[in-house]
Specification:
CATH class: Mainly Alpha
Structural class: mainly alpha
Distance between the termini: 35 Å
Number of domains: 1
Strand content: under 5%
CATH architecture: Up-down Bundle
CATH topology: de novo design (two linked rop proteins)
Number of helices: 4
Radius of gyration: 15 Å
Shape: elongated
Largest sheet: none
Number of strands: 0
Helix content: over 70%
Length: 109
């Protein structure tokens, strides 16, 4: 999230202020917030799972926004950094999915 906020978002054109910049910054910042909020509700099986699912969705949205940044504005953003971040967010989304599966198994006990 820090790399997205410090190294990608500021380099996008000002005309993207209310679209790609806004969407990318909101989705990347919401992931850790959702995980923290969900963890606070870990005593509720469905509550925690909902937040994990929402965090996964935000990971996917961040990946799409990074792909758009890379593809539309290659002259503005570091392509290699975008690729690295896309990979990181893809892995994080898969880890969240596995956490959700493990949580379901754990809560059934």
């Amino acid at each position: 999230m820090l790399k997205v906020m410090k190294e990608i978002v500021p380099k996008l054109p000002e005309r993207e202020k209310y679209d790609l910049k806004d969407q990318l910054s909101r989705s990347s910042k919401s992931i850790p917030r959702l995980i923290a909020e969900g963890y606070a509700k870990k005593h509720q099986k469905a509550g925690f799972q909902k937040y994990i699912d929402d965090a996964m969705a935000e990971c996917n949205e961040t990946v799409v926004s990074l792909c758009q940044s890379r593809d539309i504005y290659p002259e503005n953003v570091d392509i290699n950094l975008c690729e690295e971040l896309i990979d990181d967010y893809d892995k994080a989304g898969r880890q969240l999915y596995k956490l959700g599966q493990a949580w379901n198994t754990f809560k059934k006990r």
